[in-house]
Amino acid sequence: MNNSSLIIYKQQILYEILSELDKELRFKIIKINSEKVLEQQIKKLDNYIIIAKKNIFNISHQFVIDKYPIKVSKLVEKINVELMKKNFEEQSKIIISNYTIDLNARELHFNNIKLKLTEKEINTIIYLSKSKNSVSIEDLEKNVWKYQSDIETHTVETHIYRLRKKILKIFNDENFIVSKKNGYQIN
Questions:
Q1: Residue-level pLDDT at 1
Q2: pTM (2 decimals)?
Q3: Residue-wise over 61-84: b if at least 16 C-beta within 10 A, else e?
Q4: Contact present, 32 and 8 (Cβ < 8 Å)
Q5: Contact, 187 vs 179, CB < 8 A?
Q6: Which pairing describes strands 113-116 and 48-52: parallel, antiparallel, or unpaired?
Q7: CB atoms inside a 10 Å sphere around CB 52
Q8: What is the DSSP letter of 142?
Q9: In the predicted model, is pLDDT for residue 125 greater than 90?
Q10: Cα 136 to Cα 185: distance, rounded to the nearest angstrom
Q11: Up-side HSE of residue 116: CA atoms within 13 Å toward CB?
C-alpha cells in the first residue's frame, strides 16, 4: 500500500464493497459522512481522491460517481487514473515567490491571473529561483541557453528584458526579476 487515500463520502455500500477488497487495493480507504469531518480529514492528507455522488463545493480532488451499477474493476481503474492525474498535476506546479509556474500549461500564475510563457522563459525563471545569489549572464548562457562562453551575444539580456516587460504588464510587478551588479535574481 502506498500513501494514497480514497475517501468515500456518504456512500456506505460503496465503502463496504471496497473495504472487502482492501488488501487488493493500493490505497487506504476512509469513510466519511460529514462535510465538516471531510474538511478536517483532507487537511491531514497529501494524496487523496474523494468519491462522492455529487460535486462538493470548494473541495478539490473529487471523483463523482452518480451512475450505478459500476464494475469494481472499472471503478478501481478510474480511481488509479484519477490518482495518477492528480500526482502529475501536482508535480508540474512549482512555487516561486508569490507565483506558481504550471509546467504543463507553460503559465505563470498569481491571484488567478495567468501569463503564457515560452519554455526558455520558464527555464530561466526556474534556474534563477534556484540560486540564492544573482546569476551572471555567462552562467545563464551556459546553463539555460547552452551557449559557449566565448560567443558574443545579447540573447540573455534581450530575453530577460522581454520577460520582465511581460510580467510588469500582466502582474504589475517590476521586482520579480531584478538586475544586480553581477547578473539577475528572483526577488
A1: 40
A2: 0.60
A3: bbbebeeeeeeeeebbeebeebbe
A4: yes
A5: no
A6: unpaired
A7: 19
A8: H
A9: yes
A10: 9
A11: 0
pLDDT at 72: 84
Q: Retrieve residue 119's grid coordinates.
A: 519554455
Q: What is the DSSP letter of 92?
A: T
Residue 134 CA: distances (Å) to CA of 33, 45, 61: 52, 37, 38
Which neighbouring-strand residues pair with 26?
A: none
Q: Are 62 and 56 in contact (CB under 8 A)?
A: yes
CB of 61 within 8 A of CB of 48?
yes
Kindly calculate the radius of gyration of the chain based on its CA atoms and give it in whole angstroms: 23
Q: What is the rounded CA–CA span in Å between residue 10 and residue 56?
A: 11
User: What pLDDT digit, counting tens, does each position of 78-123 carry?
Assistant: 888 888 888 777 778 888 989 999 988 899 999 989 999 999 999 9
Place of cell 456518504: 10
pLDDT of residue 145: 81
Q: Which amino acid is at 68?
A: Y
Characterise 183 by phi-psi region: left (phi > 0), alpha (psi -120 to 50), beta (else).
left
Cell (9 digits) for 89? 498535476
Using the predicted structure, report yes or no on whether residue 178 has a pLDDT greater than 70.
yes
- DSSP three-state, residue 133: coil
d(CA 9, CA 50): 7
Average pLDDT value over all residues in the chain: 87
* Packing angle, helices 155-171 and 119-129, rounded to 10: 90
